[in-house]
Write a structure and sequence with these properties.
- 63% of the residues lie in helices and 0% in strands.
- By secondary structure, the protein is mainly α.
- The protein folds into two domains: 16-54, no CATH class; 63-106.
- Helix 4 runs antiparallel to helix 5.
- The chain is elongated and about 70 Å long.
Amino acid sequence: MQHRKGNYNLKKNLRRKIQQIFRVDESELALIKEKMETTNIRNKEAYFRKMVLDGYVLRLDFSDVREVTRLLSNATNNLNQITRRVNSGGNTHASDIQKIQADYELL
């Protein structure tokens, strides 16, 4: 098998050297594509391997965790800025404290 961009031999560098081929009809292919879409896996080979070896694909939704992480990051950044200002001899404004309190209430 030749690489499209030159004489690079892909077979030598494949980690998995055994290829498995199977046939499906149109309705089975549509079902496979639908299931791949719901799991957000775009690579058929990876999807097939996962399904054959494990019997299932687990799709986790971490959107809530990402949002909490973002809010926590915002709050700690504000706190760090105020801490630097106070430690360098600067003043703390009431609005800064209120901003931190509002960020922590969101958490």
